[in-house]
Structure formats: C-alpha cells, structure tokens
Amino acid sequence: MQSLKIIANGMRFLAFWAIPGFYLLGASAVVSGQWENSLGLLLAATALLIVYVIWLLRLKGERYIKVKAFWERPLALLMLLFSFPLLLLTGLLIKLESPGPALYFQERIGMNSRRRERRCCSASGNPPPLRSERRHVDRRGRDFGGRPFIICKLRSMTADAECCIGAAWSSGDNDPRVTKIGYYIRKTHLDELPQLCNVLRGDMSLIGPRPERPDFITQLSTVVDGYRDRLVVPPGITGLSQVRKEQDQSVDDVVEKLRNDREYIDNVCFSLDVKIALNTVLLMGNLFWSAVRRRTIEKIEPKTPDIIFADNPRSDR
C-alpha cells in the first residue's frame, strides 16, 4: 500500500513538471502558426492544471506539507530562470561597489523531521534510525532541533560585517554595515532570490517560517518558550510573519512572529500559501516604492543577541 502511494505521488510530481512544458509547446506552436496543435496542447495543460489545483485544495496539514514540493519546485525553477538576468546585474553592482563576493553563504536550521520519523517507527514497532537522528546534531554535538543547511543570499553588507561583533541582529534601514546597493535589495527582499536554489535542493519551501541561524535558535529557545515549534514544517523564503511584520528588533517581535508561524502551521494549506504569495508580491512593490522615495541617513549600531536578551525578560507562549 505504501509503495502504491509512492508511485502515485511520483506520477503526480512528473505530471506537474509537464504542465509548463505543455504551455511552452503550445506557445511555440502559436508562434509557428500551427493553431490546431497549439489549441490541443493549451487545453491539455489547462485541464491538467485545474485537476492539480482541485487536488491541492483538498489537502491540509501534514498531508499538504508532504506534497508542497510538487508545485513549489517547478515554480521555483521558472522564477530562477526569469530572475537570472536580474541576479547577474545585481551581483555585478555589488562587486563594483564593495570588495568581496556577490553571494553570501550562511548556516541555517531547517525542518525537524524526527517527530514524523518517530511516529512512523512507533507504529511499525521499529526503533528510530540513528542516521536520521544524527542529521540534526552538528559535529560538536549540539542539537538545534532541526537539520542544518547552507543558505544562499546576495551580499547586502560589507564583507567584514561580522568580523568585530560577530552575529548580530540588523538594525534595519539604519544599519551602518549595509552597502548602498544592499539597502535596496534588503528593503525589497531581492537578496533572498538565490534561495530559490535551496528550494530546488529541498532545503526550503517557497512559503514557510524563515530559517534562523544556529546561535540565534539556541539563545532564543532560552527566552521564548516553544520557539522550536516552528521547526516542524520546512522553512520558507517568505511566510505569514514576513507579510505581517518587518525585521525583528526585540524579543517581543520574535514572540509576535512565533504566533504568526504557529498560525501558519495550524492552518497550512494551498489556499493560504497562494494568499501569502500574492501578499508578498504586493509587499515587495510597496517596499520598492518606499526605498526609491527615501533612504534613511541616521545610522544605529546593530545589537548582538546577548545585549538584546539581557534587556528582555523570559517570554511565555
């Protein structure tokens, strides 16, 4: 029975990847003047797309999370192809403005799949696999509650931004470490576009709670109860917290975002993801317009987590 489900999901995945191909073939047939062939291809692609949307709308919760990649990865590939010229231009401007690489790589913590593995193993009566348990623990034996992976971003700060103070929360528009080009790509979140590669690799989703750095997770877990609850779903490029609130400036902001992440986890479904994606597009347009209209001059030094947590008492759920 389990093998039949795997085969069925594999066929759905392959069929969904075929939808963009049908549309491309139909468009090429229209350009070449073969209207009869193009009409059949476009109708087949549209019918297949409608069937997929209806199927996705019926899924909720963990069932939907298992198949999110069916539509997210093809869409991420198309977004990466269409945004590639913009990425090249932005990377060139970053290199011209300041020394250092155009891309920035950083370790983040992804989804915690151990809960699902333990539930499956307890149902079958088998012990949990040790290999999957070790994936969530780094070489120094620290368990962050999720699987570490490397995230990719366009560099928006100077190359030596953390050489003196180490890991620190950004102070937003006022951060002196942010370059001129970096201000605009951070403001509009264009620096997140390379993370489409993480979606294709399976490290992330398009929609979900933002992945956090290991050190921040360790410290936030001590002051915010239930902070690691957000690791039960794959992290995303955008999410419910991102469309409702800007960057974290205090522990209270973290608590508010955690509430939003829990709301997303409790109600995750295809329609909610579509709503978040549309709100993200509108938000990026508004942020781009505000970035063009004005640029903050006054600078505020960023704070390290130790300073922020020392000024905030322990926060409850």
TrEMBL record:
Keywords assigned by UniProt, alphabetized = Membrane, Transferase, Transmembrane, Transmembrane helix
Matches recorded under Pfam families:
Bac_transf (PF02397)
Q: Which GO terms describe its molecular function?
A: phosphotransferase activity, for other substituted phosphate groups
Q: Decide whether keyword Membrane is in the record.
A: yes
What sections of the protein cross the membrane? 39-57, 77-96
InterPro entries this protein is in?
Bact_transf
- UniProt entry tagged with the keyword Transmembrane: yes
The residues covered by the Bacterial sugar transferase domain are: 145-282
Q: In terms of domain of life, where is this protein from?
A: Bacteria
Protein family: Belongs to the bacterial sugar transferase family.
This chain's protein is named Sugar transferase
Q: Which organism is it from?
A: Abyssobacteria bacterium (strain SURF_5)
